[in-house]
Automatic annotation (TrEMBL):
Keywords: Plasmid. Pfam families: CoA_binding_3, Polysacc_synt_2. Residues 180-454 form the Polysaccharide biosynthesis protein CapD-like domain. This is Polysaccharide biosynthesis protein. It comes from Paractinoplanes hotanensis. Signal peptide: none annotated. Gene3D superfamilies: NAD(P)-binding Rossmann-like Domain (3.40.50.720). InterPro entries: NAD(P)-bd_dom_sf, Polysac_CapD-like, Polysaccharide_Synthase-Rel. Belongs to the polysaccharide synthase family.
Length: 492
């Protein structure tokens, strides 16, 4: 009975709201009269849909009139959200669009896999409706979800929309009130680390990079009111061990996120010595300076698992060096390994976007090549969560969703751009794999604390193995060092 009373109340409220809205439009003066709103169906009957429906009904800025909700849960059929009925599932989308005369379908599921977003989009377009989405929570910086936030679909929505559950208390316990240093702060991962760490209220956030323009950009993105002489930014290169020690002595960081690295795989194949200087010797310089830190997080890559490229070799060596220092220090020393990041600079999205803008063609190495993809925000959120649960000497392996065919990404971007662009297959480059590996041979996928974070042990490597940089200037030497016996094996 109570459910029936609640439903009748919702229906009455909705009827009165619609009647008032119609009266106000009919009696408003010409200057204040609104444009007719587009009729829209929502896909997904969760909490986001409920919040959005109230805004669509009451917010005068709303451009859409809700006329129905679709959801695949049979138990929700016939329910009403803010007076709007659930009228079917995805199988009924075309019929629902025709019956309600809807001109738009709004996708409201925040953590859907890209395959579902793509399927509902295809159904909506086939039915002659515009496809729209609600933004991720991370996009809503200073307000709750509302009708004005409804937007066009982006390629990152088609790849996947992952709502990540984190333990904010555990993360805050690691960084709040602490002096936190981020190396490579001007890069894609480093700058997002700075922005997210800033929200947890560190005692001091020290942003270190050798690129002055990138440093100024991240400084302003973290705090737009920061002054030019802001002491939080430090101009330094991790290759300069003396300068790194000087920074650590002066600022005494308690937590270090080491994100400085060279990562352009084809370029590093041609210049392995440069990769060694930054990714290996730079990591040693930071590790040696971090004598008294409570937490050291080495930002790694999935290419370090069973590596075949210069980038993978140097990052695997960095993982092993971090584990070697874990044996010597009282703090927690961990590495965090994840797949490809869909950032603004240098990512596959940026490359494809530039190629489309130039009229094509889009270049894809192989039609079957797949990669694990996540947004920068997702990657950094998981890095912080991993830092809160990691045990010294481990690598934390982050995984979101299933591998994505890069050819599908290219085709989706062409479709979104509505440009007749060709795709050209160029063949796998040296150091590239057809698919991506997250775990090295013998590493078990064990997730004791978080469903998206696996914990794997890393065989430690002594710094003495990298004391002669000249000996590591070619790929074969790097490959050998990746398989050098661990300290325990050598002692045995």
């Amino acid at each position: 009975m109570r459910r029936q009373r609640d439903t009748r109340s919702e229906n009455l409220l909705y009827t009165l709201t619609v009647r008032y809205d119609r009266w106000r439009r009919e009696h408003a003066g010409p200057a204040s009269r609104r444009e007719p709103r587009a009729r829209a169906i929502l896909f997904g009957a969760g909490s986001a849909a409920s919040t959005l429906l109230h805004s669509m009904i009451f917010d005068p800025r709303s451009r859409y009139e809700p006329v129905g909700v679709l959801d695949d849960d049979p138990a929700r059929q016939g329910e009403r959200l803010a007076g709007i009925a659930v009228i079917g599932s995805r199988a009924d989308l075309a019929t629902a669009v025709e019956r309600t005369r809807a001109t738009a379908v709004i996708f409201t599921i925040g953590n859907a896999e890209g395959s579902l977003v793509r399927e509902i989009r295809a159904l909506a377009l086939a039915a002659g409706a515009r496809f729209l989405v609600v933004p991720e929570t991370s996009e809503l910086l200073d307000h709750d979800l509302g009708a004005p936030d409804i937007r066009d679909v982006r390629i990152t929505d088609l790849v996947g929309r992952h709502r990540i559950a984190t333990d904010a208390t555990a993360i805050a316990g690691r960084v709040s009130g602490k002096r936190v240093l981020v190396t490579g702060a001007g890069g894609e991962i480093g700058s997002e680390l700075c922005r997210q760490i800033h929200r947890f209220g560190p005692a001091e956030l020290i942003m270190l990079d050798h690129d002055e323009k990138a440093l100024q950009a991240v400084r302003l993105s973290v705090d737009p009111r920061a002054e030019a002489h802001d002491p939080s930014v430090v101009l330094a290169d991790v290759r300069d061990a003396g300068r790194v020690r000087e920074v650590f002595r002066a600022r005494e960081p308690e937590v270090v996120f080491h994100a400085a690295a060279l990562q352009h795989q084809p370029l590093l194949e041609r210049h392995p010595g440069e990769a060694v200087k930054t990714n290996v010797l730079g990591t040693v310089a930071v590790l040696e300076a971090a004598e008294d830190v409570a937490l050291f997080v080495n930002v790694s890559t999935a290419k370090a698992a069973d590596p075949v490229s210069v980038l993978g070799y140097t990052k695997r060596i960095a993982e092993r060096l971090t584990a070697g220092f874990a044996d010597e220090r009282t703090g927690t020393f961990v590495s965090v390994r994840f797949g490809n990041v869909l950032g603004r600079h240098g990512s596959v999205l940026a490359t494809f976007g530039a190629q489309i803008a130039d009229g094509g063609p889009i270049t894809v190495t192989h039609p079957e090549v797949t990669r694990y993809l996540m947004t920068t925000e997702e990657a950094v959120t998981l890095v912080l969560q991993a830092a809160a649960v990691g045990t010294s000497g481990e690598a934390l392996v982050l995984q979101l969703g299933e591998p994505v065919r890069i050819d599908d990404v290219a085709r989706d971007m062409i479709e979104l751009a509505d440009e007749p662009v060709d795709i050209v297959y160029t063949g796998l480059r040296p150091g590239e794999k057809l698919g991506e590996t997250l775990f090295a041979p013998g590493e078990a996928d064990r997730r004791p604390h978080h469903p998206l974070i696996a914990h794997v042990p890393v065989p430690p490597l002594a710094r003495s193995h990298v004391s002669d940089p000249a000996a590591l200037s070619d790929i074969r030497a790097l490959a050998e060092l990746c398989t050098t016996p661990s300290l325990e094996n050598r002692a045995a």
